[in-house]
Amino acid sequence: MENPKISVIIPVYNVKAYLKQCITSVTGQSMREIEIICIDDGSTDGSVDILHELSAQDDRIRVIEQENKGAGAARNCGMRAAAGDFLIFLDSDDFFESDMLQKAYEKIEAYQADFVVFGSDQYYMDKDEYVRNPWVLQQKDIPPYMPFSHRELTDNVFKVFVGWAWDKLYRRSFVERYQLYFQEQRTTNDLLFVFSALVLAKRIAVVPEVLAHQRRGGTESLSVTREQSWFCFYDALTALRDRLVRENLYWELEQDYINYALHFSLWNLKTLASPTKELLQKKLCEEWFAALGISGKEKSYFYNQGEYQDYCDLIKGQKEWKQKR
User: Whole-angstrom Cα distance, residue 223 to residue 189?
Assistant: First the structure.
């Protein structure tokens, strides 16, 4: 399509079972002035055949094929090919309300926002159940007016929204002005992009209603095989800190950043299986807690005392383990 309003960028990797539902929920959007850029990331299950079949039925779909490089590289590829005034990055196993793009577009234009965040829920396939989680969009910490910036959020700025990209619509000129990009690593490749945008945006808007459905329970998901890339979250955190420093924002956001770094480190540790879990614990206790600025801080520095206690227990446990060796 010539002069699309929105470029919809969808990395695709071995999601044959869910791909048609995802793509048709995009082609069926009430907003028609869109281009749909699907980047096949070296699928081996026939996903690319489905993409070509669907593109033959709708000329707004463009298929790009690349060797397997990960979702971050695929999103960057999609950005380079995009022609729309706005960008949205969707996951190929999710599906969406038919008015998602229209409502997000109307909101971002109404407030001339740099990006807009919309509500979502999680669809559990085994139960055929939709569950909305309040931590995805912390309404209580968002000001009662729009637009706003990160300085007007009332809690840790890195926990008001989740550091994934698929529930946000971005103004392309904003993305290009700040040269935002996705890290080309296997997992946690969107945190740098999302949180850099969060702290750099001057105007943010929100659509609180549920417009996207995140599929949960699929064995194909990267989140169930993170043992192969257990270090990616640390690389994302350090890249974010480097960006904050370059933008002269770290002095302002240091406490929020360190609290989030502890939270995200603990989350990654808790969701890993052995023996990778023990490997990460050792790395955190002996190197990464200090490198992230967590070590040496007083108890009162931490917003979540439960997480601080978990941190203390990990340090103590690691010391005891070393003494027994």
Answer: 12
Q: Characterize 281-315 residue by residue with b for buried, 16 or more Cβ atoms within 10 angstroms of its Cβ, and e for exposed.
A: bebbbeebbeebbbeebeeeebbeeebbebbeebb
> Do 215 and 235 reside in the same domain of the chain?
no
Residue type at position 108: I
Beta-bridge partner residues of 117: 168, 206
| Domain co-membership, 184 together with 238 | no
Do residue 194 and residue 63 come from a single domain?
Answer: yes
Same domain for 191 and 239: no
Residue written as tokens 């890249």?
Answer: 239
Q: What is the pLDDT of residue 41?
A: 97
Residue 140 DSSP one-character state: G
Q: CA-CA distance, 261 to 290, in Å (whole number)?
A: 11
Q: Residues 268, 132: one domain?
A: no
Q: Which residues contact 183 (CB under 8 A, 6 or more apart)?
A: 72, 189, 190, 191, 192, 193, 232, 235, 236, 239
3-state DSSP call for residue 203? coil
Question: pTM, whole model, 2 decimals?
Answer: 0.95
- Cα–Cα dist 271/315, whole Å: 18
Q: Is residue 40 domain-shared with residue 182, that is, in the same domain?
A: yes
pLDDT digits (tens, 9 = 90+) for 262-295: 999 999 999 999 899 999 999 999 999 999 999 9
